[in-house]
Amino acid sequence: MEESAVVIVGASSGFGAALAEDLAGAGRTVIAGARSARPSGGGVLYRQVDVTDEESVAAFFAQVAEVSPAPYGLVYSAGDASAVGYGWEVGADELNRVFDATFFGFVRCLRYAVPPMRAAGRGSVLALGSHSARVPVDMLGAYASAKAALEHYVRTLAKELTGSGVRANALGIVAETTLSRDFLTRKADALGRETPYPALPAVRDNLPLARFLLSAESSHVSGQVVDAFPPAW
User: Fold this and answer.
1) Mean of the pLDDT values across residues 162-169?
2) What is the pLDDT of residues 6-18, one digit of tens each?
3) Is the full-model pTM beyond 0.85?
Protein backbone atom coordinates (compact mmCIF):
# COMPACT_ATOMS: atom_id res chain seq x y z
CA MET A 1 0.00 0.00 0.00
CA GLU A 2 1.47 3.36 -1.07
CA GLU A 3 1.03 5.16 2.26
CA SER A 4 2.79 2.35 4.11
CA ALA A 5 6.07 2.72 2.19
CA VAL A 6 9.11 3.87 4.19
CA VAL A 7 12.62 4.53 2.88
CA ILE A 8 15.41 3.94 5.38
CA VAL A 9 18.88 5.21 4.48
CA GLY A 10 21.71 3.78 6.55
CA ALA A 11 20.23 0.34 7.17
CA SER A 12 23.24 -1.92 6.95
CA SER A 13 23.24 -2.48 10.72
CA GLY A 14 22.20 -0.97 14.04
CA PHE A 15 19.10 1.18 14.36
CA GLY A 16 18.40 1.41 10.62
CA ALA A 17 18.47 -2.35 10.13
CA ALA A 18 16.40 -3.01 13.26
CA LEU A 19 13.77 -0.44 12.24
CA ALA A 20 13.59 -1.86 8.72
CA GLU A 21 12.88 -5.34 10.05
CA ASP A 22 10.41 -4.01 12.62
CA LEU A 23 8.36 -2.01 10.10
CA ALA A 24 8.40 -4.82 7.54
CA GLY A 25 7.19 -7.21 10.23
CA ALA A 26 4.25 -4.87 10.81
CA GLY A 27 3.33 -5.12 7.13
CA ARG A 28 4.83 -1.89 5.84
CA THR A 29 6.73 -1.64 2.55
CA VAL A 30 10.38 -0.93 3.38
CA ILE A 31 13.07 0.10 0.92
CA ALA A 32 16.38 0.12 2.74
CA GLY A 33 19.57 1.76 1.52
CA ALA A 34 22.95 0.48 2.67
CA ARG A 35 26.48 1.28 1.58
CA SER A 36 27.32 -2.42 1.58
CA ALA A 37 24.91 -4.48 -0.50
CA ARG A 38 22.84 -7.00 1.44
CA PRO A 39 20.27 -9.45 0.15
CA SER A 40 16.63 -8.49 0.41
CA GLY A 41 14.53 -10.58 2.74
CA GLY A 42 12.05 -10.53 5.60
CA GLY A 43 9.92 -8.02 3.71
CA VAL A 44 12.80 -5.53 3.34
CA LEU A 45 13.99 -4.50 -0.13
CA TYR A 46 17.67 -3.65 0.17
CA ARG A 47 19.40 -1.41 -2.36
CA GLN A 48 22.98 -0.13 -2.42
CA VAL A 49 23.60 3.58 -1.81
CA ASP A 50 26.60 5.72 -0.93
CA VAL A 51 25.23 8.87 0.72
CA THR A 52 28.47 10.75 0.05
CA ASP A 53 28.00 10.39 -3.72
CA GLU A 54 25.31 12.43 -5.52
CA GLU A 55 25.00 9.99 -8.42
CA SER A 56 24.60 7.04 -6.07
CA VAL A 57 21.86 8.84 -4.13
CA ALA A 58 20.05 9.74 -7.37
CA ALA A 59 20.24 6.15 -8.59
CA PHE A 60 18.95 4.85 -5.27
CA PHE A 61 15.89 7.10 -5.30
CA ALA A 62 15.21 6.16 -8.91
CA GLN A 63 14.94 2.57 -7.67
CA VAL A 64 12.74 3.72 -4.80
CA ALA A 65 10.37 5.41 -7.28
CA GLU A 66 9.92 2.09 -9.09
CA VAL A 67 8.51 0.61 -5.88
CA SER A 68 6.83 3.68 -4.41
CA PRO A 69 6.69 6.97 -6.39
CA ALA A 70 5.80 8.90 -3.24
CA PRO A 71 6.93 7.10 -0.05
CA TYR A 72 5.18 8.00 3.18
CA GLY A 73 8.37 8.06 5.23
CA LEU A 74 12.07 8.84 4.93
CA VAL A 75 14.39 7.78 7.75
CA TYR A 76 18.00 8.96 7.67
CA SER A 77 20.17 6.79 9.89
CA ALA A 78 23.55 7.04 8.15
CA GLY A 79 26.51 8.52 9.98
CA ASP A 80 30.26 8.46 10.62
CA ALA A 81 31.70 8.73 14.13
CA SER A 82 35.24 7.67 13.27
CA ALA A 83 36.89 11.04 14.02
CA VAL A 84 37.54 10.54 17.73
CA GLY A 85 39.84 12.98 19.48
CA TYR A 86 40.10 16.29 21.27
CA GLY A 87 39.11 19.40 19.35
CA TRP A 88 42.70 20.40 18.73
CA GLU A 89 43.58 16.94 17.39
CA VAL A 90 40.90 16.35 14.77
CA GLY A 91 41.88 17.55 11.30
CA ALA A 92 39.63 19.39 8.85
CA ASP A 93 39.74 16.41 6.47
CA GLU A 94 38.41 14.13 9.22
CA LEU A 95 35.69 16.64 10.06
CA ASN A 96 34.72 16.86 6.41
CA ARG A 97 34.41 13.06 6.17
CA VAL A 98 32.13 12.93 9.21
CA PHE A 99 29.93 15.78 7.99
CA ASP A 100 29.66 14.25 4.52
CA ALA A 101 28.06 11.03 5.75
CA THR A 102 26.24 12.37 8.80
CA PHE A 103 24.82 15.67 7.52
CA PHE A 104 25.38 16.30 3.81
CA GLY A 105 24.09 12.83 2.94
CA PHE A 106 20.81 13.79 4.57
CA VAL A 107 20.65 16.97 2.49
CA ARG A 108 21.26 14.95 -0.68
CA CYS A 109 18.42 12.56 0.17
CA LEU A 110 15.95 15.37 0.88
CA ARG A 111 16.26 16.67 -2.69
CA TYR A 112 14.78 13.43 -4.01
CA ALA A 113 12.45 12.41 -1.18
CA VAL A 114 10.65 15.61 -0.21
CA PRO A 115 9.24 16.81 -3.60
CA PRO A 116 7.09 13.68 -4.16
CA MET A 117 5.97 13.77 -0.53
CA ARG A 118 4.86 17.38 -0.92
CA ALA A 119 3.07 16.54 -4.16
CA ALA A 120 1.21 13.75 -2.36
CA GLY A 121 0.39 16.06 0.55
CA ARG A 122 1.58 13.71 3.26
CA GLY A 123 4.71 12.19 4.71
CA SER A 124 7.15 11.96 7.58
CA VAL A 125 10.88 12.74 7.53
CA LEU A 126 12.74 11.28 10.49
CA ALA A 127 16.46 11.92 11.00
CA LEU A 128 18.54 10.11 13.57
CA GLY A 129 19.88 12.79 15.88
CA SER A 130 22.09 12.47 18.92
CA HIS A 131 22.10 13.50 22.57
CA SER A 132 25.65 14.72 21.91
CA ALA A 133 24.28 17.37 19.55
CA ARG A 134 23.10 19.33 22.60
CA VAL A 135 25.18 17.97 25.48
CA PRO A 136 28.98 18.07 25.00
CA VAL A 137 30.68 14.68 24.90
CA ASP A 138 34.45 14.83 25.10
CA MET A 139 36.34 13.51 22.06
CA LEU A 140 33.14 13.40 19.98
CA GLY A 141 33.15 16.99 18.73
CA ALA A 142 33.18 16.12 15.02
CA TYR A 143 30.23 13.75 15.11
CA ALA A 144 28.31 15.88 17.64
CA SER A 145 28.71 19.00 15.50
CA ALA A 146 27.46 17.15 12.41
CA LYS A 147 24.43 15.92 14.36
CA ALA A 148 23.79 19.43 15.70
CA ALA A 149 23.74 20.71 12.12
CA LEU A 150 21.39 17.91 11.12
CA GLU A 151 18.98 18.55 13.98
CA HIS A 152 18.76 22.28 13.27
CA TYR A 153 18.25 21.53 9.59
CA VAL A 154 15.33 19.31 10.59
CA ARG A 155 13.77 22.11 12.62
CA THR A 156 14.12 24.53 9.71
CA LEU A 157 12.77 21.94 7.28
CA ALA A 158 9.72 21.42 9.48
CA LYS A 159 8.99 25.15 9.43
CA GLU A 160 9.38 25.26 5.65
CA LEU A 161 6.99 22.32 5.26
CA THR A 162 4.25 23.83 7.42
CA GLY A 163 0.88 23.33 5.77
CA SER A 164 2.18 20.83 3.21
CA GLY A 165 1.11 17.71 5.08
CA VAL A 166 4.75 16.67 5.38
CA ARG A 167 6.47 16.83 8.75
CA ALA A 168 10.07 16.48 9.93
CA ASN A 169 11.46 15.36 13.27
CA ALA A 170 14.69 14.05 14.77
CA LEU A 171 15.08 11.12 17.13
CA GLY A 172 18.12 11.03 19.39
CA ILE A 173 18.77 7.45 20.41
CA VAL A 174 21.12 5.89 22.92
CA ALA A 175 21.78 2.34 21.80
CA GLU A 176 24.41 -0.34 21.43
CA THR A 177 25.30 -0.24 17.73
CA THR A 178 28.41 -0.89 15.67
CA LEU A 179 28.91 2.87 15.36
CA SER A 180 28.48 3.64 19.08
CA ARG A 181 30.69 0.72 20.14
CA ASP A 182 33.38 1.76 17.66
CA PHE A 183 33.39 5.25 19.19
CA LEU A 184 33.55 3.93 22.76
CA THR A 185 36.40 1.58 21.84
CA ARG A 186 38.34 4.38 20.17
CA LYS A 187 37.73 6.64 23.16
CA ALA A 188 38.83 3.96 25.63
CA ASP A 189 42.01 3.38 23.62
CA ALA A 190 42.74 7.12 23.42
CA LEU A 191 42.29 7.52 27.18
CA GLY A 192 44.21 4.36 28.06
CA ARG A 193 41.13 2.92 29.73
CA GLU A 194 41.79 -0.70 30.72
CA THR A 195 38.18 -1.87 30.86
CA PRO A 196 35.65 -1.32 28.06
CA TYR A 197 32.66 0.96 28.53
CA PRO A 198 29.48 -0.89 29.59
CA ALA A 199 26.91 -1.87 26.99
CA LEU A 200 24.35 0.75 25.98
CA PRO A 201 20.59 0.04 25.89
CA ALA A 202 19.31 -2.30 23.18
CA VAL A 203 18.44 -0.78 19.81
CA ARG A 204 14.90 -2.18 19.97
CA ASP A 205 14.17 0.00 23.02
CA ASN A 206 14.21 3.00 20.66
CA LEU A 207 11.85 1.59 18.03
CA PRO A 208 8.35 2.37 19.45
CA LEU A 209 8.83 6.14 19.19
CA ALA A 210 10.19 5.81 15.65
CA ARG A 211 7.11 3.78 14.67
CA PHE A 212 4.87 6.51 16.10
CA LEU A 213 6.67 9.32 14.27
CA LEU A 214 6.32 7.38 11.02
CA SER A 215 2.58 6.86 11.46
CA ALA A 216 -0.42 9.02 10.60
CA GLU A 217 -1.11 9.23 14.35
CA SER A 218 1.78 11.70 14.66
CA SER A 219 0.53 14.02 11.91
CA HIS A 220 0.42 16.83 14.52
CA VAL A 221 4.10 16.41 15.49
CA SER A 222 6.75 18.31 13.52
CA GLY A 223 9.95 20.24 14.19
CA GLN A 224 10.70 18.21 17.32
CA VAL A 225 13.94 16.66 18.54
CA VAL A 226 13.16 13.81 20.91
CA ASP A 227 15.90 12.22 23.03
CA ALA A 228 16.21 8.88 24.72
CA PHE A 229 17.68 9.04 28.22
CA PRO A 230 21.46 8.57 28.31
CA PRO A 231 22.92 5.77 30.48
CA ALA A 232 23.69 6.70 34.08
CA TRP A 233 27.41 6.21 33.60
Assistant:
1) 97
2) 999 999 888 899 9
3) yes
Neighbours of 146 (CB within 10 A): 28
CA gap 214, 206 in Å, rounded: 13
Instruction: Kindly provide the residue ranges of all beta strands, DSSP E only, lying in 35-87, ordered along the sequence.
Output: 44-48, 73-76
3-state SS class at 110: helix
Q: pLDDT, tens digit, for every residue of 125-157?
A: 999 998 778 888 878 899 999 999 999 999 999
Mention every residue, 6+ apart, whose C-beta is less than 8 A from residue 172.
128, 129, 130, 131, 133, 151, 225, 226, 227, 228
48: helix, coil or strand? strand
Q: Per residue in 50-66, is it b (16+ CB within 10 Å) or e — as a string?
A: bbbeeebbeebbeebee
